[in-house]
Amino acid sequence: MMIEELTLGAIYVLSLETDGVVKSVQKVSMLYGGFSTYSVIDVGDVFGSAIDSLGDTDGDNIADMAVSAYHDDDGGTSTGSENVIFLQSDGSVKAAQKLSMLYGNMNAFYTLDASDVFSFLQWRL
User: Fold this and answer.
1) pLDDT tens per residue across span 110-123
2) For residue 102, with 0-12 CB atoms within 10 Å meaning exposed, 13-18 middle and 19 or more buried, which class applies?
């Protein structure tokens, strides 16, 4: 693993057998899994600090996820971002939408201030 990747962050998507044994693993980061096609993670963003399953939001029978990057600097220092990641069956990224002050139209509804660290914690509602 490269030192730069340690400061960017990563997540690992595990596919499990019915008995809980790992069937396959896909790393998702700026270097793996196709995420860089859809979004950018910068050094210090802390991508992957919180993850939540969203269920199947796009109707392809594959669970999708929300992944935080709470020190993302879109629109100000450490305002934070959330990345909605639509997965393929092998765990790689099919598509992604970043939600921050610069992407995903979030700024039409709310303004994040410096150090708000949006998406620091996640709760399913």
Assistant:
1) 777 777 777 666 65
2) middle
Residues 75, 16: contact at Cβ < 8 Å? Answer: no
pLDDT of residue 85: 96
What is the tens place of the pLDDT at every residue in 27-74? 999 889 999 999 888 888 889 988 999 999 999 999 999 999 888 888
Alpha-carbon distance of 73 to 21, in angstroms, equals 38
Query: What's the burial of 50, exposed, middle or buried (CB within 10 Å: 0-12/13-18/19+)?
Result: middle
Contacts of 47 (CB under 8 A, 6+ apart): 8, 9, 10, 11, 29, 41, 67, 68, 69, 83
